[in-house]
Design a protein that fits this description.
Blueprint: E1 4-7, H1 12-20, E2 26-27, H2 42-56, E3 62-73, E4 76-78, H3 84-94, E5 98-109, E6 112-124, H4 129-137, E7 158-162, H5 165-169, H6 173-182, E8 185-187, E9 192-194
Parallel strand pairs: 1-2, 1-3
Antiparallel strand pairs: 3-4, 3-5, 5-6, 6-7, 8-9
Helix pairs in contact: 3-4
């Protein structure tokens, strides 16, 4: 049996990663409240949002995938920038230092949900003011947590990563396959199968 696969996200990067792994899917973005709950840690927040996204989309007899990525520096969460000035603040804060990217991923099949969190250390090289402005001019920072994307122009500002590159992009494929197996699905370098 080859179940339908639904990605509960509008992220083009997550779509691209599923396609890269040969997993045919449809996109049905989840509409959830992404606000923090009182006392919630960044780790718990990212994994909860991934689970809620997977649960928010009605997909009978389909495998539903939810994911959420946050950037954490000095214990503070950097979400998507509100505007150009906010993007500049984030990039100046990340310049020349390390931070943590946390990506929660969840898989739902009927009434079962398996989820996990992947943490990756990322280090930026030092960026001067003109580089930050030029990077913002590309438009790339504006829809990404932490105001950067590792797969585009942002690849030139990342000096090092310690962990899963795809988790930094927004969908840890290795962990996704592990979660699929927990729910009884097989993956053989292409379609997801069951039974």
């Amino acid at each position: 049996m080859r179940p339908r696969v639904v990605l509960a996200s509008a992220s083009p990067r997550r779509r691209d990663l599923l396609a890269l792994a040969g997993i045919e899917h449809e996109v049905r973005p989840a509409n959830i409240d992404e606000a923090y709950r009182d006392g919630e840690t960044p780790r718990a927040h990212a994994e909860r949002l991934a689970r809620e996204k997977a649960l928010a989309v009605e997909t009978p007899d389909a495998v539903t995938i939810g994911s959420d990525t946050i950037v954490v520096v000095d214990g503070d969460v950097l979400g998507k920038p509100r505007d150009r000035a906010h993007a500049g603040e984030m990039l100046r804060r990340l310049s020349g230092r390390s931070h943590v990217v946390m990506t929660g991923v969840a898989v739902r099949w009927r009434n079962q949900v398996a989820s996990s969190l992947v943490e990756v250390g990322v280090t930026f090289r030092h960026l001067d003011g003109s580089e930050i402005e030029a990077y913002i001019d590309t438009g790339e920072p504006m829809d990404k947590a932490g105001a950067y994307g590792i797969q585009g122009f942002g690849a030139t500002i990342v000096e090092r990563i310690d962990g899963d590159y795809f988790a930094v992009m927004g969908l840890p494929l290795n962990r996704l396959v592990t979660l699929l197996r927990e729910l009884g699905f097989g993956y053989a370098f292409g379609p997801i199968t069951r039974g």
